[in-house]
Structures are given as structure tokens and as C-alpha cells.
Amino acid sequence: MNNNESMAPAIQARGLVKKFGDLRAVDGIDLDVPRGMIFAILGPNGAGKTTLMRMLATLAQPDDGSASVMGHDLASAPRQVRGEIAMTGQFASLDEDLTGRENLVMLARLWGFRGRAARERAEKLLASFDLSDAAGKQVKDYSGGMRRRLDIAASLVVTPGVLFLDEPTTGLDPVARKSVWRMIRALAGSGVTILLTTQYLDEADQLAARIAVIDHGKKIAEGTPRELKVATGSGFLHVAVADLARLEEAATILEGRLGASVQRSAEGATLAVVARTPGEANAALGALIEAGIELSDFSMGSPSLDEVFFSLTGGGRK
Amino acid sequence: MNDQTTSAVAHGRGHALEQVARPPAPSAFSDALVFGWRAVLKFKHVPEQLFDLVMTPIMFTLLFTFVFGGALAGSPADYLQYFIPGILVQTVLFNAVYSGMGLSTDLGKGLFDRFRSLPIWPLAPFAGLMVGDVLRHVIAGSIILGIGLLLGYRPGAGFFGVLGAFALLVVVGFGIGWVFIVLGLLVRTPMTVMTLGFTFMFPLVFASNIMVNPATMPGWLQVFVQVNPVSLMATAMRGLMDGGVTTAQVLRALIAPAVLTLVLAPVTLLLYRRR
């Protein structure tokens, strides 16, 4: 291992492009991920998250641009890259017909553990992921949460330099989701660099030290969760209208007063809008009261990551 | 780096995840063996796949022997003598379709993404598929031969003739296997692999000398039957099992498997990397 490799960032990408026909699924993305960090790629479905990750994991070839993982160039040294990474895809990368134990023994052997050592490695992983009891069952009989745990265990046969997790909690119930989060934090604590994709803002907010927001194949923002919130606006005025029939009227007044577009919550009862100063917010509230619109709640605060995302992507998405 | 640099990390449930370094990389051959082991495990866990594989040839054997046998060869017993070496070829060819379906299923589930992101010999998973195929061919072939023997088939060349014939079968299966690996890589759904596979296989198998002597066919068809690789394989099988085989027969039977391997192994690697 030369000095260059041991000092290189975990991931460094420049101008990565992947085209599918006319569609530029990934359209010139730069990425710098330092070692030991949890880095989240946040974006809606079809934003290019998975494609970006597949390129970094040597599963798809970039049409343009370059990248290195743990100091190894993707194009010229894919095998060295593969020696440093592990990937848990969106769809279980396991053999459903085999048992959990057999899946892990198979992977341990492929990594170079022989005979008994491979079986011991498998047992340890099964124990660490609470799967010892189900070790002899075929994977097709596993629950979603067990499957995901086994899938992550399968990525840890050898401790990877970079672990890629493609939507690690999609489709899991809240309990299983929390347990995957704990696992991810524990791994990051042991020094593994983790690149995860997610469409859940709270997941990125909870786990990641840095977030890159991706939409239509382009990176539209990057920073710590706090930086992203600050960048969107100093403050957000949240207003809950008592009489839902007057919601649109309230939205029009807020937009007129504050000059920014109003975001409606998914449930439709609350409105959120950027207010540059508390004074402006006060004036806007005053206008609502003057118009006789009764408010059940209002607050001024930092934007949630949802609001950050919607204002970055133009607010058009639901 | 130590083999096991332990840095215990409090895991959610109080277990410890430790840092585990990579052992020396295994050879391409042992990678292939691991995938072969996977194929064997599949037999253990999904034994019903054998049922699918042998039912069609068993039906063909019984149907052709007892229904058409007398009309085609004078008596069912005579026909059986002609038919058994050929149906073995057909069994192997149809088996290969199932292997393509299996690959297409695997690819759809993301399992191969994991294999592809491992630092292993890229063709190792396919070598494993081939091991599974060879096992399937030998098991299915033995069952068909066993039924043939029960019904009265007698291989004139004895045990070693049969052994030679099975060796040829395995090579034929290996060669044709590439066609379905390529199909499995190109086609997303297992059902489509099956439909395409049988569309391609049926004319080759029926317009051959497996079931009937081509002497009564129209001239243009006879020309095709004579150069059909499936006929060449069946002819060599008959020679090997019944005696009187010539080197030329065996070599002609090996042309197609050799060409398929030479052309399609690189295609497989290319497609696999491109995916």
C-alpha cells in the first residue's frame, strides 16, 4: 500500500456521466467523501442515485468523467476497487434458495476464507446480526428485516473500506428501520466509510455527516444537514389554518407579503414559507389576522430537511 | 495489518462488530469451485428441479417408443435401440434452457450485483453454473438411460461405450450452455428465456435424426438434417453406445460445442461487464 492510497479520500469523483439512450441518468456529478464518514445521497425516485452508486461500485461503466475509490481508479483498477468495497443493493443480493448460513459461507469462501475459517466467519456474522436462530432457514422464508440484516452482514464478511448501501431501509417497518440505523452508526464508528442513498429526508438528517442532494442526474446542493437548512433561508414561517376552506386565501396573502412561494404540507393543513426576518413574518401574520383568518398554530424556525429539499428542487414535487 | 484487528464496537444488541482484514485472495479455480458448491446446494434445497428436467424426456421416450415406435422402426424394441442415444442429446439440449432461466432469475434479483462487486475471477459464477449443468446432465441422462435399460435397451458397446457417450454429452451440454448464458444475460425475464430457448431448440431437435431416420424426408430437409449439429451429436452418441463409432463422427459432434464456446465465452464476459 503506497502513501498515495492510504491518504486518498474514500471516494473522489469528477464529472461522472451515465447515459441510457437519450436520458442522462447521471449528468456530471462531482463527489468528495472523506474516510470514515456517513455520506448520504438524497433524491427522489429516478434522480440517478442508484446509477451513481452502481458506477462507484464498478457495476456500471461511466460514459464520461472519472472516479477513484480508496485511491484506486475505477476505470484502470476495478479489481482493486472491488477489494475495498461492499455493496448492499436495493433488492436483496442473496441466494433465496440457500440458507442464511450457506449464503455467508459462500461469500466468506469467495473472499478467501478456507474451510473452517469460512464457517467460523459466517457464524460470527450470524451472531452479530441476531440471525443465529434462522441460520438454517432458506432465505426465501426470512422476513424483510431479517433479509436486510443478512444482506448487510453479507457486505461485512471482510470489513470494507467503503460500504455502499442503496436505500437500506426502503420497505422496512419502523422497528427494523431503527435497527438498521443502529447498525450503520456502529459501522461508521468502527471506521467504515458509508455511502448511502435514500429518499427519506429524516434518514439522511439522522445518519449522515454530509448530504448531497441529487435531482435529474445533477447535484443541486451539498453540505452538512445544518448547512443545507441555513442555505435555504434564515427562517421558515409555519402556519396552521383553523378553517381549511380559507387555506388558499391564506397562502395567497403569505405569498403576497413575503414574496416567496408557499409549501403545503402533505396533510394540507399547514403552510410553510421563507421569511427573511422575524419582522417580515410578523407583518405577514398581521395580514392574515386582518383578513379574519383564524390560525390554530404558528411558529418560526429552521426549515426541516423536507422544506430544504422542496425549495431546492423547485417545490413542484409531492 | 493484523489478521484480525479487533476494535469492538457496541452494536445495537450488545454484540460486537469487529474489523476483519481480507485473507489472501483465492485462485480462480477455487472461486469456480465455490460456485460449483452453490450449484450442488441448489440440488439439495430445490430437488423438484430434477422433476422438471426429466419429465419431458421420460414422456418423449415412452410416447415415441410405444406409440410411434412400431410404425417408425418395425417394433417398439427396435425403435428404443435407435432412440435412446438421441433422446439423451435432446435431454441435454432442453436442460440447457432451464439453466438460462436460472441465470435470468438470479440476475433479476440482484444476486449477481454482489458477485460482480467481489474481487473474483469474473467468469467464476458462470463456471459454477456449468458445474450445475454438468450435474444436471449426468443425473437426467442416467435416469433416461435407466428407463431405457428397463424397457429393454441394450448398449452394444457396453459400459465403456456408455461412459464415452456421457463424456460427449457433458461436452455438448457445456457448449450449448453458453447459448443460454448469453440469452440469460440479454433477456430480463425467465419466461422469455424459455420461450426463445424452445423456439430455437424445437426445429433443431425435430429436424434432426434424433427421432426418425431422415431417409423418408424431402431432399431439401435431408440436406439440413445432415449438417444439423444435433444430428451429428446423435450420430456420434449412437456410435459410442452401440459400437462402431469413428473418430470423424466424434470430431464432427464436437464442432458445434467448440465453436459456441470460442465465440460465446468472450461475448458472455463482455455482456457481464457491460450490464
Task: Produce the secondary structure layout.
The complex is a heterodimer of chains A (318) and B (275).
Chain A: H1 3-7, E1 11-20, E2 23-33, E3 38-42, H2 49-56, E4 64-69, E5 72-73, H3 78-84, E6 85-88, H4 100-110, H5 115-128, H6 144-154, E7 162-166, H7 174-189, E8 193-198, H8 201-207, E9 210-215, E10 218-223, H9 225-232, E11 236-241, H10 247-258, E12 263-264, E13 270-274, H11 278-290, E14 295-301, H12 305-312
Parallel strand pairs in A: 3-8, 3-9, 6-7, 7-8
Antiparallel strand pairs in A: 1-2, 1-4, 4-5, 9-10, 11-13, 11-14, 12-13
Helix pairs in contact in A: 4-5, 9-12, 10-11
Chain B: H1 28-45, H2 48-73, H3 76-108, H4 111-116, H5 124-151, H6 158-186, H7 190-206, H8 219-227, H9 229-242, H10 247-274
Helix pairs in contact in B: 1-5, 2-3, 2-5, 3-5, 3-6, 3-7, 3-9, 5-6, 6-9, 6-10, 9-10
Keywords, separated by commas or semicolons:
heterodimer; A: about 325 residues; alpha/beta; Rossmann fold; Alpha-Beta Plaits; six-stranded mixed beta sheet; four-stranded antiparallel beta sheet; 12 helices; B: about 280 residues; mainly alpha; about 75% helix; about 0% strand; elongated; disordered N terminus
Describe it for me?
The complex is a heterodimer of chains A (318) and B (275). Chain A is α/β, with parallel strands linked by helices and 318 residues long. Chain A has 2 domains: 3-97 and 138-229, Rossmann fold (3-Layer(aba) Sandwich); 234-302, 2-Layer Sandwich (Alpha-Beta Plaits). Chain A is built from 12 helices and 14 strands. Chain A has helices at residues 3-7, 49-56, 78-84, 100-110, 115-128, 144-154, 174-189, 201-207, 225-232, 247-258, 278-290, 305-312; strands at 11-20, 23-33, 38-42, 64-69, 72-73, 85-88, 162-166, 193-198, 210-215, 218-223, 236-241, 263-264, 270-274, 295-301. Chain A has a 6-stranded mixed sheet, sandwiched between helices. In chain A, strand 4 and strand 5 form a beta hairpin. In chain A, helix 4 (100-110) packs across helix 5 (115-128), helix 9 (225-232) packs across helix 12 (305-312) and helix 10 runs antiparallel to helix 11 (278-290). Chain A is elongated and about 80 Å long. Chain B is mostly helical. Chain B has one domain. Helices cover 76% and strands 0% of the residues of chain B. Chain B has 10 helices and no strands. In chain B, helix 3 (76-108) packs antiparallel against helix 5 and helix 6 packs antiparallel against helix 9 (229-242). The longest helix of chain B has 33 residues, at 76-108. The radius of gyration of chain B is 22 Å and the shape is elongated. The relative contact order of chain B is 0.13. At the A-B interface, helix 3, strand 6, helix 4, helix 5 and helix 7 of A face helix 1 and helix 4 of B.
